[in-house]
């Protein structure tokens, strides 16, 4: 019978354990892929003292216990070592067919992860407290609550994939963000029917904003998203059938310029009925754009709403206009419009369906 191996303290070592000449312990095992792996520690058991000058760590026997649990549960010993950045990149590769805005959002989040300690952490080491600390750091960097919430959702999905791949057991991002951060998002309050009528009357009589009257009438009367409004062409209008066809939206990026995308959702492809007032507004828009240069974007041309340079307008043009319009309106009206008001606000009536709201003036 062969003699049992012992360490420098004359303790019997288990199968796979050994001690090196420098005093460090090693454990050899075979992973779930049949490949030999090694782990090391300066202590054999938890009660041992870490040698002076060496980094404090758990003992070899504790590491063996974790490894055996992983092997029993089928946890991937290699996958769990990938960093948070590597996991997020892997998740994105598996979902490549996304919109341009999603690509830019992913790039932004990846840069945040690369500049934050969390990004370099192995996913096996990330605890829920680490994820919560990450959220707090993002807030301290001035990132809006809603953006942090969206990023947390993306990371939660990535860690869920890691669980499905048997890399980890728990999802550290499975918590409610409002238990960690105060939700500072200012809600967008829809306009009342009276406010809508007052706004239109103000715009129609104002020397600066009267040129936007038709666009606001159309937004109020159709519920179009601003990018859908920007994408409208003369070919989308059927005055005989009194309908507007919505099957695309116009956007613009600094890198690629103008581009066309499908509506945000499948139900976004639709036909919208024209009210009398919307019909009149669209006819005025067409009359005013006669003689304008024709810009072609991804095969679409005849865009209705153009800026002073004759190029199609995009959402940022309207965001700025609405902010200044509301500021001017509120200066001369006792009942102020909501401070947070964007073109999107006009899509959400307060009480009644659109067709009822506009019955009084459309």
Automatic annotation (TrEMBL):
- What does the record list as GO biological process? DNA recombination
Q: Which residues form the Tyr recombinase domain?
A: 186-362
Gene3D superfamilies given in the database record: 1.10.150.130, Classic Zinc Finger, Intergrase catalytic core
GO terms (molecular function) for this protein are: DNA binding; integrase activity
What the entry lists under CDD domains is as follows: INT_ICEBs1_C_like
User: Record's PROSITE patterns?
Assistant: CB, TYR_RECOMBINASE
Q: Which residues form the Core-binding (CB) domain?
A: 79-163
Q: Cite the entry's keywords alphabetically.
A: DNA recombination, DNA-binding
The UniProt entry, under InterPro entries, shows: CB, DNA-bd_dom_sf, DNA_brk_join_enz, Integrase-like_cat_sf, Integrase_catalytic, Integrase_recombinase_N, Integrase_Tn916-type_DNA-bd_N, Tyrosine_recombinase_XerCD
Which domain of life does the protein's organism represent? Bacteria
Official protein name in the record = Integrase DNA-binding domain-containing protein
